[in-house]
Structure formats: structure tokens, C-alpha cells
TrEMBL record:
Top-level taxon in the UniProt lineage: Bacteria
Family annotation (InterPro entries): Ubiq_cyt_c_chap, Ubiqinol_cyt_c_chaperone_CPB3, Ubq_cyt-c_CBP3-rel
Domain Ubiquinol-cytochrome c chaperone: 34-169
Signal peptide: none
Organism from which the protein derives: Microvirga thermotolerans
Protein name: Ubiquinol-cytochrome C chaperone
Assigned protein family: Belongs to the UPF0174 family.
């Protein structure tokens, strides 16, 4: 019985691999240099949140067990945030409060991005991303177009390809140079 504790759970390994691919995609330098996400702790949270939202949206319409994968992926995301807070020196009493705030922020962003992504409303998405991801009142048009392109591409993926290759996001540099104020 004790040996079960040392076996790798194949599902856990798959979810960890999927989460790593999402996290790696959120760290592509072009997101920061070309699309205007600040290369700060907050900016990295915003980029990771955006990529998680896009990946979870891709899982939403897929057949079972996609809903379980989405739940496990979300759990991995929050476990990573918890571990990061502890690594940065947050004490045991502060972590739950900060995690509650991060969860609220994440779900708020998911809600703010879902509507414009559903309706393909680039202006509304640019405003939400400008405010949240870029920390600015200026619309983030290039980032919005990136997110819309990613959302569209991810809709074409099935569960097997998402689990094998992970979500495939467009290259941020392809959206660079688009005017931020013409939304």
C-alpha cells in the first residue's frame, strides 16, 4: 500500500505537462516586448491568466473528460500560484488571503474576457486587456487581436491534441506594431 504513494499518477503527469505548456506560452518574450504586457510580477500573472482563460475556453465545449481536465488544470494553476507566493516569502497566514485575492482577480478576468471573445468584439476585449493585462486606460488592440486569433485557433483543437501538444498560441510578434488606439 505504501508503494502507491511513490507511483506517478499518469493523469497528474499529463496535467502538469499541460500546465507547463500553458505557463511557458505565457512567458514568450514577444508578449512583453511586442504586445505591451509589463514584464513585472503583475504582468506575468496577467499573461498567465489570459493564457489559462484561453485554454479553459478551448476545453469547455469538448466532450468528457475535458471538464475534468479543465478542473485539474485550474487546480494546477492555483497550486503554482500558492507555491510561488510561498517561494517569495509570504507567510502561512498571508498566503490564504493573497490566494483569495488572486482567485478573485483570475475569475474576474475570465468573466471580463469571455463576453468579448464570444462576440469577437475586438474593441471591448482591447479595453479589458488594456485595463487588466497592460495596466493602462489605453486599449491593447494588438494583444486583443492576439487573444482573438489564439481563441479561434484553439477552438479547432480536440482534447487529444491539447493533451499531447498542449495549446498552440500564435506568435506575439505577428501582432506587433498594430496601433493600440484604433480600437
Amino acid at each position: 500500500m505504501i508503494f502507491r504513494l511513490f507511483r506517478k499518477d499518469p493523469r497528474r503527469v499529463l496535467i502538469a505537462s499541460l500546465y507547463k505548456r500553458v505557463a511557458d506560452s505565457s512567458r514568450v518574450p514577444g508578449l512583453y516586448s511586442a504586445l505591451g504586457i509589463p514584464d513585472t510580477l503583475e504582468g506575468r500573472f496577467e499573461s498567465l491568466s489570459l493564457h489559462m482563460v484561453l485554454t479553459l475556453r478551448a476545453l469547455r465545449p469538448l466532450p468528457a473528460p475535458a471538464d475534468d481536465v479543465a478542473k485539474d488544470l485550474t487546480d494546477a494553476f492555483f497550486a503554482d500560484l500558492d507555491a510561488s507566493l510561498r517561494e517569495m516569502g509570504a507567510g502561512d497566514t498571508a498566503v490564504p488571503k493573497r490566494m483569495k485575492k488572486l482567485a478573485s482577480s483570475f475569475y474576474g478576468r475570465a468573466h471580463a474576457y469571455d463576453g468579448p471573445l464570444d462576440t469577437r468584439d475586438v474593441a471591448a476585449l482591447a479595453n479589458a486587456l488594456g485595463r487588466n493585462a497592460c495596466g493602462s486606460d489605453a486599449p491593447a488592440l494588438s494583444l486583443a487581436r492576439y487573444a482573438l486569433a489564439a481563441d479561434e485557433a484553439l477552438k479547432q483543437a480536440d482534447l487529444a491534441s491539447l493533451m499531447e501538444r498542449g495549446p498552440v498560441f500564435p506568435k506575439p510578434d505577428a501582432f506587433a506594431g498594430e496601433e493600440r488606439h484604433d480600437a
